[in-house]
Amino acid sequence: MSVRLFGAAVFAIAALYTLHSQTYQITFGDVLGPSVFPLIVGIPMMILSASLVIFPTGQVEWPGRDRLWRQAVALAAFVGYTLVMEELGFPIATAALIAIVGIVMGGAPWRAIALGAVFGPGLWALFDKVLGLPLDFLGTLFG
């Protein structure tokens, strides 16, 4: 029954994701640019999750409380990331996300913070300067 419940939950999320992606308007790039990506992800996700509902297989062993807690904190970090990225800017928000997830996954705090400090601005430079996908360096809070 757990597999079917999981499949139904993922299907609902994928359906909402795909439905919401129809409102996404892109003003730059080609026709098959970033606006098509949510459809490429959402439709197969709905098909595969429906297969879990119709054809459940295997037994599910639920993780212990410690692992569930870590997963909840990581999920909260990703949700918080989407909420604060516009205000803080891509590099700061991404650096904080990488540091939080690194600590939650059991890494040394100083290493997680150092990794975030390197990869936050590094990913911004890759996307903005190399790939030409414009991202705010400083968010609305700082600029």
Automatic annotation (TrEMBL):
<dbReference type="Pfam" id="PF07331">
    <property type="entry name" value="TctB"/>
</dbReference>
<keyword id="KW-1133">Transmembrane helix</keyword>
<feature type="transmembrane region" description="Helical">
    <location>
        <begin position="90"/>
        <end position="110"/>
    </location>
</feature>
<dbReference type="InterPro" id="IPR009936">
    <property type="entry name" value="DUF1468"/>
</dbReference>
<keyword id="KW-0812">Transmembrane</keyword>
<feature type="transmembrane region" description="Helical">
    <location>
        <begin position="37"/>
        <end position="56"/>
    </location>
</feature>
<feature type="domain" description="DUF1468">
    <location>
        <begin position="5"/>
        <end position="135"/>
    </location>
</feature>
<protein>
    <recommendedName>
        <fullName>DUF1468 domain-containing protein</fullName>
    </recommendedName>
</protein>
<feature type="transmembrane region" description="Helical">
    <location>
        <begin position="68"/>
        <end position="84"/>
    </location>
</feature>
<keyword id="KW-0472">Membrane</keyword>
